[in-house]
Design brief:
This protein is mainly alpha-helical and 455 residues long. It is built from 19 helices and six strands. It has three domains: 100 residues, Fumarase C, Chain B, domain 1 (Orthogonal Bundle); 249 residues, Fumarase/aspartase (Central domain) (Fumarase C, Chain A, domain 2); 94 residues, Fumarase/aspartase (C-terminal domain) (Ribonucleotide Reductase Protein R1, domain 1), CATH 1.10.40.30. A two-stranded antiparallel sheet has the order 1-2. A two-stranded parallel sheet has the order 3-4.
Length: 455
């Protein structure tokens, strides 16, 4: 059964049949498709185009089709071009010719846009819940290790001491922004295209606001031509997924580094590490390497869709069928990756002693410059003076704290005995107590703000 056979004399080339079909991937919108049809039946009854009894028959049949899908009993036929055809074909088998009234005034163009919006809406809510779990795991690690100090890096060079909790939360906020971005995208997803028809609107008086209410949409699309051709909501979702993937890849990269023997700051749980088939000693952070790698396909899916959309003429074009696979792939990827990310973070073992051992006096050079600043020396000058001291200590192969006082006073007479008090990592951290800084007080406030985001 084709939905459009009438004007054709001969059948389709089998290869064309396969080329044209989307049922291989769009079957998974069955729930959305059936919900959309149930609402549409109600709208047709309301418009007087179906009797109550016909409506009940159609809805009963649709619910049966839904059940067949849910119980994995639906048999997809070769000729089922797409999910819309498959559902209607089966409905016809179940309830007879009255099934032919379902599509009154509707086009697959407004139907597929509606299905995809319903599907995306649900997926976004699921993703957001998974993302919150990763965030909660980061918060839990930050809370479990409030005192641990670690070297903070820029350019992967030791820079300044920070709290481990501060590092953990540095990966919380990108995810928070991702979650806010998806919540914002969800607003534009949640607009109903049904009733746009093929492109020009519905001629049979279907109540679109009623349909929106039935399906939980916040409103209806304002232009039927735009409604059937608009896939911005897919592009936005794919962008949000891509950026989320980028963030997960950066978390992954930190943990790959930190779990190496050279750093030794963390150990990934056995459950999220793998061995080598050749080297018995190996313990590889594959979970986090994959986290890094998955960003590639997430970015690729966004680029795929934007490339499909670019230069398309107005309204529906079959190119738009290419919107689904990249979307489904990104959602599937994150459905697996996010729970893994949460579990890896949750089960991470932290080694504060290894973090402490990786600190050196050079990380306090800024504090030393600040010492002179507090004595009235312009920062540019104090930076230079301390630079010379660092070079002197390096030359002697000792730390800054091991340079004698006269070496300091030779460099600048404003150095006093109290200069050695600078060499306290904890003090250095505690001084950075402005909002967003790494001082314990500031990190506690940050932690409270982070928990507020998860409430
Ligand atoms: N399978 C199609 C898609 O995914 C459904 C819409 C088909 N519309 C059409 N006019 N052929 O886009």
């Amino acid at each position: 059964m084709k939905l459009w056979g009438g004007r054709f004399e001969s059948g389709m080339d089998q290869r064309m049949e396969r080329f044209n079909a989307s049922i291989g991937f769009d079957w998974r919108m069955y729930d959305a498709d059936i919900s959309g049809s149930v609402a549409y039946v109600r709208a047709l009854v309301k418009a007087g185009l179906l009797t109550e009894a016909e409506g009940d028959t159609l809805i009963g049949g649709l619910e049966q089709v839904r059940q067949e899908f849910a119980q994995d009993q639906f048999e997809i036929r070769l000729a089922d071009e797409d999910i819309h055809t498959a559902v209607e074909r089966r409905l016809h088998e179940l309830v007879g010719p009255v099934a032919g009234k379902l599509h009154t005034g509707r086009s697959r163009n407004d139907q597929v846009a509606t299905d995809l919006r319903l599907y995306t809406r649900e997926a976004i809510h699921r993703l957001m819940a998974y993302m919150a779990e990763v965030q909660a795991a980061l918060v839990a690690q930050a809370e479990a290790h409030p005192d641990a100090l670690m070297p903070g890096y820029t350019h992967v060079q030791r820079a300044q001491p920070v709290l481990f909790a501060h590092w953990a939360l540095s990966h919380f906020w990108p995810l928070q922004r991702d979650r806010e971005r998806l919540a914002d995208a969800a607003k534009r997803v949640n607009v109903l295209p049904l009733g746009a028809g093929a492109l020009a609107g519905n001629a049979l008086g279907v109540d679109r606001d009623f349909l929106a209410g039935q399906l939980g949409f916040d409103g209806v699309t304002p232009n039927s031509m735009d409604a059937v051709g608009d896939r911005d909501f897919v592009a936005e979702t794919l962008f949000d997924c891509a950026l989320l993937g980028v963030h997960l890849s950066r978390l992954g990269e930190d943990l790959v580094f930190y779990s190496s023997a050279e750093f030794g700051f963390v150990t990934l749980a056995d459950a999220y590490s793998t061995g080598s088939s050749l080297m018995p000693q190996k313990r590889n952070p594959d979970s986090m390497e994959l986290m890094r790698g998955k960003a590639g396909r997430l970015i690729g899916n966004l680029v795929t869709l934007l490339t499909v959309l670019k230069g398309l003429p107005a309204t529906y074009n079959k190119d738009l069928q290419e919107d689904k696979e990249p979307l489904f792939d990104s959602l599937d990827t994150l459905d697996v990756a996010l729970p893994i990310a949460a579990a890896v973070v949750r089960s991470l073992t932290i080694h504060p002693e290894r973090m402490a051992a990786a600190m050196d006096d050079g990380m306090l050079a800024t504090d030393l410059a600040d010492y002179l600043v507090r004595k009235g020396v312009p920062f540019r000058e104090s930076h230079h003076i301390v630079g010379r001291l660092v070079r002197a200590a390096d030359g002697r192969g000792i730390g800054l704290r091991d340079l004698p006082l006269d070496a300091y006073q030779q460099a600048d007479e404003r150095f006093g005995e109290d200069v050695y008090r600078v060499f306290d990592m904890r003090e250095s951290v505690a001084r950075r107590d402005t909002v967003g800084g790494t001082a314990p007080s500031a990190v506690q406030a940050q932690l409270a703000a982070a928990k507020e985001c998860l409430r």
